[in-house]
Design a protein that fits this description.
two-stranded antiparallel sheet, eight-stranded antiparallel sheet, 7% helix, 10 strands, single chain, 2 helices, mainly beta
């Protein structure tokens, strides 16, 4: 949500960060309740039914710390039948003393984005908000849970471990694809049809 404390680039391939980190990895340390106390709330709105809400809250007491943030955005879209919404949440809960630290991080996203296809120029001249085909909607859903622990064995040696679960599901509904025609030959207009199209200005 743009709410991070430290971002580091680890150059080169390293299996510690997964099999696909061939060119490097980006390490992001998110905010927590130890360094970010208090609340923030931002609400905005605009044309085409657009509204956004961003909030965060953090605190700590008696060795415990907590932090939560959220991002909500909704709009009807400036084109016909083009609504989109974004729902993103982040939470972090931890406990630590002089030698031990334990943390649980959660995140969840459930977004629905609509980007209807291109339109022919003359139709745009009549109605700039019109669409040629619809819908073109992509939905993403992703929960994330991370459990981490660290123990200091001495002033110079510590051990740490981390486990995580992440699931991403993406579904698309697109009016531009006719799957029943994928095994058919591409249609070519005959001479009469080409003449009619040319007379119509195509």
């Amino acid at each position: 949500f743009g709410k991070t404390e430290v971002t580091r680039l680890i150059i080169g391939s390293n299996p510690l960060y997964g099999l696909n980190t061939l060119g490097g990895a980006i390490s992001v340390q998110t905010k927590d309740g130890l360094q970010n106390h208090g609340e923030e709330l931002e609400i905005s709105g605009g044309s085409f039914g657009r509204g956004t809400v961003q909030f965060q809250h953090g605190g700590s007491a008696r060795g415990f710390n907590w932090f939560g943030a959220g991002n909500l955005a909704f709009e009807d879209g400036w084109r016909e039948d083009s609504p989109s919404n974004v729902r993103q949440f982040f939470g972090k809960f931890g406990w630590q003393d002089s030698k031990t630290a334990v943390g649980l991080t959660t995140a969840y996203a459930n977004n629905s984005l609509t980007g209807n296809g291109v339109q022919e120029q003359r139709f745009l001249a009549q109605d700039y908000a019109s669409v040629y085909t619809k819908p073109d909607q992509t939905q993403n859903r992703s929960p994330l849970v991370i459990l981490s622990a660290r123990r200091a064995l001495s002033n110079t040696v510590s051990v740490s471990g981390e486990g995580y679960y992440r699931y991403i599901r993406t579904t698309t509904f697109n009016g531009d694809i006719n799957e029943d025609s994928l095994d058919q030959s591409v249609y070519q207009p005959n001479a009469a049809e080409r003449a009619a199209l040319a007379a119509a200005g195509y």
